[in-house]
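User: My collaborator sent over this chain with a note saying "see what the structure looks like." That's all I know about it. Can you take a look?
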Amino acid sequence: MKNSVLLPALFLALAIVLAGYFIGNMHKTAKEYDRYVQVKGLSEREVQADLAVWPINAVLTGNDLKSLKNNIENQNNQVYQFFLDQGFNDDELTKGMVNITDARSNLYNNNNQYAGFRYLSKSEFTVRTKDIKKLQKALSESLNLMSKGIVLGSKNEWRPIEYIFTGLNELKPSMIEEATTNARQVAEKFARDSDSKVGPIRVARQGQFSINDRDQNTPEIKIIRVVSTINYQLIN
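Assistant: Without extra context I'll predict from the sequence alone. Here is the result:
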């Protein structure tokens, strides 16, 4: 009789002890898992643009459409030949539209009767090249066209030439590795200060890559930047 009562009591006590152990161990493990540090790792590169796009307008004025047409064709041929003489090939040059506006047909221009020329034409050209130095040389040499009565203007006055870097995919792996290494160094410094060690990565978030001009005066030089955010487990 005593044994039949004692054994269940012993099993119940053992179950309570084991349950307490596992609950306590789970609580301890959860507390340890809750110890982590979130750090950011930065990687930056300074690179030269490898593609330049220069959209151009060649402007002419006149009062007679027939003579204006002849002048436009002559001017456009001279502009195209200028870039060929500068070393550009046909693949780097694109002729666009010719836009002609009539000052007298502009109902919102109250001073059109005083305009010296009735017609204004803008011929579009686009220079697209990977040879940045050649383009910059052509930009300075284009002033010589003024002696021929040819006025070139950039379509985008706020950014006359667009400089582009196309080699980001080649840099991504090394930059992500550098950002992760920097993040790990920051985490290890934090761990030393808190008498801990850096454990495995819990969560890693790669930031977006950004490409910006180094400054307003040198848009052909770019700064590439990425910031990775990583959570590291801290262990004793």
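A starting point for your reply to your collaborator: Residues 2-33 form the longest helix (32 residues).
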